[in-house]
């Protein structure tokens, strides 16, 4: 941990990321409040949800684009300039009286900003390999998760306060300002990062000139990325399992609400307290997992953590089926601790084992695939909620969880190659 804290390049780039994250959190809260001023709030919310969901489907292609970009440092700065400009436009729009058309335009601009953010992350991935040594990447990720989890609470609280006395227009300009601050920090770091890249140049994907060549190149990138994942069985198993877990856990919030409505014993003090406890326990568990847990379980393999993770939804939906809030809270806490340990190990595996010229492509593809599981789960839960009781939904997801646990155990019996992070 000492090496990470003393790594000025790592800390400075992380601070730049945190500043822009604060702007995003603040403006998302502001936008949620803004739509309440409109008569057609539901349609506005649907547009916002779509603008937040659509970038999930572009991860693979944005990753391919990032891997094929030669001048990564200057392009990173350009993406930040674009995001500053987009939110300046949002600020100007917020000067008009609240209207649905403004939300529609803001959603388009927010979508473009998210794409720019994805592109920036993809560009920075191979650069980050020069900033943090291979043996320190798991610790670095754990540090980032811990700090982000702690600051997320502070961001939400301070955001709620700022919304109380700042206009929506000023909040949009404030968000643009956070990207401007990130741009200033990254511009300051550019000479040091350029020196690292000069000493250890980034491998580049071969470029093709014609339209047909580009399409062929994209197909080849997808094929090679798929093969890279196939060559690491534990990574392949992890992706399928994480996507399935994301899909299954989408039932969490609806089941909490349904159980509180149908069973008075599922409530602790009141509904507000119950919902707050879930959020607090999950945040605390994530922080403990990524700080204390990552040190205690440093030599535990990803495969064993994966098996343990798939046991959690079995216990969770058993708690829902029995309508026992205390079992649900306890399992959620352990789940959060497990994820806090698992995620840094998974990130280190991706960074250390995949070819650097395909990092953004594979990383974007992994993110898209895992998040698509969540989208599918949300659609399934939305249908179930209208037709079934809390008990029936709990039973269905309990059975699905048992199936996932069985799949993970079976596929983990004879792995061709297992990586132990240590």
From TrEMBL:
Classification via InterPro entries: MFS, MFS_dom, MFS_trans_sf
Major facilitator superfamily (MFS) profile domain boundaries: 9-418
Chief localisation class: membrane
Pfam families cross-referenced by the UniProt entry: MFS_1
Keywords of this entry: Cell membrane, Membrane, Transmembrane, Transmembrane helix, Transport
Transmembrane segments: 9-31, 43-65, 86-112, 171-189, 234-255, 275-297, 309-342, 381-407
PANTHER family named among the record's database cross-references: INTEGRAL MEMBRANE EFFLUX PROTEIN-RELATED, MAJOR FACILITATOR SUPERFAMILY ASSOCIATED DOMAIN-CONTAINING PROTEIN
Protein name, per record: MFS transporter
